[in-house]
Design goal:
Elements (H helix, E strand, L loop, with lengths): L7 E4 L5 H11 L3 E6 L13 E3 L2 E3 L8 E2 H6 L3 E5 L5 H13 L2 E4 L5 H4 L4 H7 L4 E6 L14 H8 L1 H4 L14 H24 L4 E5 H6 L3 H8 L17 E6 L2 E6 L3 H10 L19 H16 L3 H10 L4 E3 L3 H4 L3 H5 L3 E6 L3 E9 L7
Helix pairs in contact: 1-8
């Protein structure tokens, strides 16, 4: 039996942060009921690429096709259509809330209240209900009413300012990190509120701000700032270690991450230059002078350049050096390790079964 079996979750959320939160809860065993508006339902049902018995396509849209995005994010969920702008729909929703444990929503702050579904109303239906609200900037504060998607939150949390090369412009992280991390904090907050409910008998309102969650990802930047060092963009390098970079190989790239002085000793042994570990410029702690860092980058880069990435990585790992190739997503869905851990699974259409050529992400939490 999965750990959250018997837990009932109502899902009013859309886009990514909320649906990803409820996806995780469903994967842990909760019964998730997605509440969709009448008509076309969730807006992501019809967002390309569309999936059907012939596979997934941006160009083709046949009757019965459903968006890959919706199929992926609505896994482990049931669905019901309710018009929450109509009194009858609200009455039915109240009956659902009366038997639910959790309600997740990611509307703009104040929307539930405007619909007559604020936390006091929900508690009137069910005082044990846990409400989780995920929004760009939280339920209070000066930016409460700002509209935001992931890129805006990345910009306002320091992620964009910290991403990119030192002499280049700020860059958005390539993934929707503010959405997905907010989903994780939502799950954590919900589980904490459910644990507290065992003692108090009362539900609670979990307020998750995407900006708060993304800013929480910046500990090293604040720690450097405390020492009087203004954080700056460093590309693939890091001032606290060397070698710490992504290097071209004969057929791709290799990431090397030496965080401690011992790591650097292992790197030098791996590239056949163990004697350099005794040189003063390469000793004395994890951080070294910029000139020594550049020299070490050149040495490691030259050694990697003539080798296939996998060969270089295998040598590094044999010497206990944290190193890896840099595979693309198309390679990762075929990765034997991810498949062995069931992190790459088939994507199912409710009417047609597995969608040819489509993949879904497995559950990242395992229980032994």
């Amino acid at each position: 039996m999965k750990p959250l079996a018997g837990l009932v979750v109502l899902d009013l959320s859309r886009f990514l942060a909320g649906p990803y939160c409820t996806l995780l809860l469903g994967g842990l065993g909760a019964e998730v009921v997605k509440v969709e508006p009448p008509g076309e339902g969730d807006p992501y049902r019809t967002r390309p690429p569309m999936a059907g018995p012939q596979g997934a396509s941006f160009a083709r849209r046949a009757p019965g096709d459903i968006s890959v995005l919706f199929l992926h994010r609505a896994r482990n969920k049931k669905s019901v259509t309710l018009n929450l702008r109509h009194p009858d729909g609200v009455a039915l929703f109240g009956r659902l809330c009366a038997r639910a444990d959790v309600l997740v929503e990611n509307f703009a702050p104040g929307t539930l209240e405007a619909m007559g579904l604020g936390f006091p109303t929900l508690q009137g239906w069910n005082p044990r209900l846990v409400l989780c609200s995920i929004s760009g900037f939280g339920q209070d504060g000066p930016r409460r009413d700002w509209r935001a998607y992931d890129p805006i939150v990345q910009a306002m949390s320091g992620i964009v300012a910290q991403t990119g090369e030192a002499d280049g412009p700020p860059l958005r992280a390539g993934l929707l990190v503010s959405d997905t991390t907010a989903a994780l904090y939502g799950v954590i907050g919900i589980l904490a509120a459910l644990r507290a409910r065992e003692t108090t008998g009362q539900g609670d309102w979990v307020d998750v701000s995407m900006q708060d969650g993304s800013f929480f990802l910046m500990p090293d930047a604040l720690e450097f700032l405390a020492a009087g060092i203004a954080p700056r963009r460093t590309g693939n390098t890091h001032a606290a270690g060397a070698p710490f970079n992504v290097y071209p190989a004969a057929d791709g790239f290799v990431s090397v991450c030496a965080v401690t002085e011992r790591d650097r000793v292992h790197v030098l042994a791996a590239i056949g230059r163990p004697e350099l570990a005794r040189e003063p410029r390469f000793a004395g702690g994890p951080a070294i002078a910029p000139e020594a860092r550049r020299e070490l980058d050149d040495l490691v880069g030259a050694w990697i350049k003539g080798r296939p990435a996998v060969e270089a990585v295998n040598i590094f790992q044999a010497h206990k050096v944290p190193a890896s190739p840099v595979p693309g997503i198309d390679e990762l869905v075929e990765d034997e390790h991810l498949r062995a851990r069931e992190m790459v699974v088939g994507l199912e259409h409710p009417d047609h079964g597995l969608v040819p050529g489509a993949h879904a992400l497995g559950m990242p939490i395992k229980f032994r």
